[in-house]
Amino acid sequence: MTQQFVPALSETGTALSIACIFLVPLCGAGLALINTGLGRSRSAAHSMLAALCVIAVAALMYFACGYSWQGFAGRPAHVITVSGKAWNWIAAEPFFLRGLQLDGSPASLAALLQMLSVGLAAMIPLGSGSDRWRLSAICVSTALLAGFTYPLYAHWVWGGGWLAQVGAHYGLGRGFLDAGGGSTIQAVGGLTALAIAWIIGPRRGKYSPDGMPTAIPGHNAVLVLLGCALALVGWLGLNSAGAILFAGVAPTAVVLVGVNTVISAAVAALAAVMITRMRFGKPDASLVANGWVGGLVASSAACASVTPAAALVIGLVAGILVTVSIELFEVRLAVDDPGGAVSVHAVGGIWGVLALGFFAHFPKPVSGQWLAQLVGVATLLGFVLPLTYGLNWLLERFVPQRAPLEGERLGMDVYELGATAYPEFVTHTEEFIQR
Amino acid sequence: MTQQFVPALSETGTALSIACIFLVPLCGAGLALINTGLGRSRSAAHSMLAALCVIAVAALMYFACGYSWQGFAGRPAHVITVSGKAWNWIAAEPFFLRGLQLDGSPASLAALLQMLSVGLAAMIPLGSGSDRWRLSAICVSTALLAGFTYPLYAHWVWGGGWLAQVGAHYGLGRGFLDAGGGSTIQAVGGLTALAIAWIIGPRRGKYSPDGMPTAIPGHNAVLVLLGCALALVGWLGLNSAGAILFAGVAPTAVVLVGVNTVISAAVAALAAVMITRMRFGKPDASLVANGWVGGLVASSAACASVTPAAALVIGLVAGILVTVSIELFEVRLAVDDPGGAVSVHAVGGIWGVLALGFFAHFPKPVSGQWLAQLVGVATLLGFVLPLTYGLNWLLERFVPQRAPLEGERLGMDVYELGATAYPEFVTHTEEFIQR
Amino acid sequence: MTQQFVPALSETGTALSIACIFLVPLCGAGLALINTGLGRSRSAAHSMLAALCVIAVAALMYFACGYSWQGFAGRPAHVITVSGKAWNWIAAEPFFLRGLQLDGSPASLAALLQMLSVGLAAMIPLGSGSDRWRLSAICVSTALLAGFTYPLYAHWVWGGGWLAQVGAHYGLGRGFLDAGGGSTIQAVGGLTALAIAWIIGPRRGKYSPDGMPTAIPGHNAVLVLLGCALALVGWLGLNSAGAILFAGVAPTAVVLVGVNTVISAAVAALAAVMITRMRFGKPDASLVANGWVGGLVASSAACASVTPAAALVIGLVAGILVTVSIELFEVRLAVDDPGGAVSVHAVGGIWGVLALGFFAHFPKPVSGQWLAQLVGVATLLGFVLPLTYGLNWLLERFVPQRAPLEGERLGMDVYELGATAYPEFVTHTEEFIQR
């Protein structure tokens, strides 16, 4: 019944997976720094603390019930038979990892990886909710994402679910493929970031009465760019572990994954330099950082199945798309997303998933892979986005997600934590800093 | 004569150990950021420089003589025969690692791990000595810890010494067990932090004449929380390497170690959020950071021998204990410990060691493991604490450990380094920053 | 025709190499923080953004043509026959890695390692060009280094080129040896830093009209020292991967590499503490940081072939040399190198390469190794320095490398990026900060 490539791992494969998984929290550390640096100084401690809480809540929810709904290819799952075919729609594992031997099996490695990567997904909406999203709501929203939305979609992709099965059942290539989590982690997180931005609305003062956006610069560009460097290390681990566990790549072939990841990030960052230089006369540091991460995000899905030349194209398009998309969301769609989370993670992730359909090559050629990828993306937009929006809309009925005006004025640090991040430094007190 | 589980390592086991050991300096980087962020801006460069010096002095002292006294199970040691039993009390290896082939043997891996982890232990007292402990004293105190106190106790636990032997000799379970260094690294460091806090006394202005403590907020919460994220990566490496080398775990079983480490840190941080919210109405970022690290610390001893559910309990209790203990030391015991080092590392570490006695399960069940753990803790409190206090008390006779009032007023940066950490930023000059 | 030790790697060797290579970007993150922290706050975003661009440009240029000129021992190369001997002078691989299976072979691992380490080399000149070097020139200069200078010299050393051949052809030991890149990465980068410092000249106000240097303190010592800690982790990975791939070390023998790396950095930092304390009465945090990195740099070449005691001597000399050299360049030679890049990387790297000649011991003793090392250093000074100076001098004709006075006055952030790194913090506006 297993539809995915999951060979029994050699001891070396297990060891390399573990070493790679241990680097994954650096993705989260990087994103936390980027989100914090792109936000205001008056919300900096809140932003970092929220990131820590997100990692914690996500890991525990995934441990409690997330894994039991995600499962792993070839393990117990609920099946519906439609038109003579058995579709696997949700896993059926016991809660609290009780059914799983943590012994280095691919399933156990996948569980460890996800306990960390689900926190990465849940950290993405912090970027769009900066400077106004309340900590209690963040924790509950994370619990919903890590406990249900993420595992459900990830089961379909990585757990032997129906998106993985469209290959065997309908001949769409090898079924929906995503080695490093461009859809399951990045797009799911990015679409949740969009839902949050819609639900809580823009920051006070972001849009003038006639709808024109004001630039609110991030408070610390050094943190942002340090975050990019840490994210690279984390992503090398994430893509490699995913390639071994979810794309059946041999440990020796991880070299290709590393090369593709670096190339994609590099070209995406340089594309952002070029575009912002053409548009504004000067390169924009925060958009270049977004481009860099967008390149990492776009590299994930196809990292194990394309050539470095294809990774170059994937990164180039990602850099352009992310930069253009950020402006589109900010100016045209009036979505206030201080961290660029929607563009970087949803747009970048979806592009990476589609790109696999165009560029992937396999030992045995397949046809229709692009259609499988399209089905996966349609599921993201047509099912995951409404689901995550709906859950957060419901949450809003019970836990007000947005800080009141008073909180925004004081800053989230003083309002929610009772202390500022930098109590000894003198900061500008005027509302918007113009240079 | 070897009492510990140290199977010959496969080449894969060696490689995974190395990859994990290389992550251990991130524990130190994390602690350095936490200590620095929780201190004053006027001592920030001093705090970071002290951390670098501690890593350096500790590694060199361990290389020079520490390893020769710690040794490794099954290698040369001095033995005393008491009541017919041969007790192994200190190793007898040549100085400067001359007797050890650095060839990937478990003993050589342990030596490499310790050269880094002894620096971690020695960095812990920097947290309690913030803003007033002098660099020269820090270096000598580190030399004493890394050259004698740590190796002696670590020999007893990890070097085939008498604490490891209480199992075989008296039937106390498998002898004292500690996979990741909850006692050898954390408690030894934490108890030394207590000794230092006692010897150098509280910061000027910390306590009012009637003994009430004043809150002196840390100068940079972002550094503190970034430190937590880096510490997670470091701890994954530390616990895993320790589990392979000191608990005889197979490389494939490191998955369990990873899961337990993450769960323990996560639940401890959330426990600290809950408690500080109940106590003060709002979560306190620095106490949550302390809770997070406390969870990591508590996870170390038992990471390889308990279920994830037990790790959940261990982390939960650690989060509560650390938060309560910090207040207890500050308010009741008048111990000024700006970094919470005593509570996080001594209390958290000891709890983790005891918890192993309650929760550990082994392939072959044993009895009396809790008693072995208790003997180890009694040795920490009854022998290591007096020893480390005595050594630092003696040191105080030769090298004044505390900066004079002038130094505290100027800040350690100007007083000891002649330059500030942030010369271009405008900082508040009033003594205590109240908001 | 292969002159170097490159045994076929076991799967474990491949896996450990990959795990180590993935840590290498932390070297770059560390250097970026050090350069930024040692520069002015008004150029901080520019410094970090330049680091990101350098990593990106270098990786892409190496992918495009760098690897094709560097190649790997035993693979296609151009050969000249001189006095009856076949000298290998440049590789002949197709562009864009098209001729290389990325399958875990030593050549493919070397390519991945270099895509990251060439960025490290190219980041070194950012240290000497701080606060005045323009981003466009940085990118083109990086392209020249990563696309030509580095691959050419690295071919000679690591690609089976003539420097590696002097052993077999003339009996100079085993030919020029450099496991971790003390010459190829560090000295090539450091000599380029010298060329840049000469070409763009000192910062405005650095030297008084009578040639006396003014101290311009770095703006953030915490970033500098955090960079040191991250660099340690990166270097452990870099030296280990290099030792496996370029010195033919077994994965199990990487323990020695780790021990040597730590010892060298530790003793170099403490040497810098001692010297600055003797010279100025107080230890200097930025010089200690330079000493630490100098110790890492000096450890690279010989990390796999000397004893820990020799590593101690190498680090000690490195710490002294770097500290003295920084003053020499600043005061006597009027080279304004804010990051100490020339002394740390060129002087430290060359010392490490020579030290291999004195201290290396091999299973089969060889003679004349020191002469091979001397030939390699002579090539650096007599060929690489003029080449890199010449290329950057030519570049200066087409792309002005130095920002105009206006740019220096405003700061590179505002001048080149249109925004500052820390817009919400109040900074001193006077030109030089004196305490």
Structure, explained:
Three copies of one chain form a homotrimer. The first copy, chain A, is an all-alpha fold and 435 residues long. Chain A is 66% helix and 3% strand. Chain A has 15 helices and two strands. In chain A, strands 1-2 form a two-stranded antiparallel ribbon. In chain A, a hairpin with a 2-residue loop joins strand 1 (77-82) and strand 2. In chain A, helix 1 packs parallel to helix 4 (106-129), helix 9 crosses helix 11 (308-332) and helix 12 (341-359) runs antiparallel to helix 13 (369-398). In chain A, 70% of the residues are buried. At the B-C interface, helix 1, helix 2, helix 3, helix 4 and helix 15 of B face helix 1, helix 8, helix 9, helix 10 and helix 11 of C.
Give the helix tally of chain A: 15
In round numbers, the mean pLDDT of chain A is 93
Distance between the termini of chain A: 62 Å
Number of strands of chain A: 2
Helix content of chain A: 55-70%
Main sheet characteristics of chain A: 2 strands, antiparallel
Order of helices and strands of chain A: HHHEEHHHHHHHHHHHH
Radius of gyration of chain A: 21 Å
Strand order of the largest sheet of chain A: 1-2
Overall structural class of chain A, as computed from helix and strand content, comes to: mainly alpha
**Uncertain spans of chain A:** 1-5
Percent of sequence in beta strands of chain A: under 5%
Largest interface: chains, residues each? B-C, 56 and 63 residues
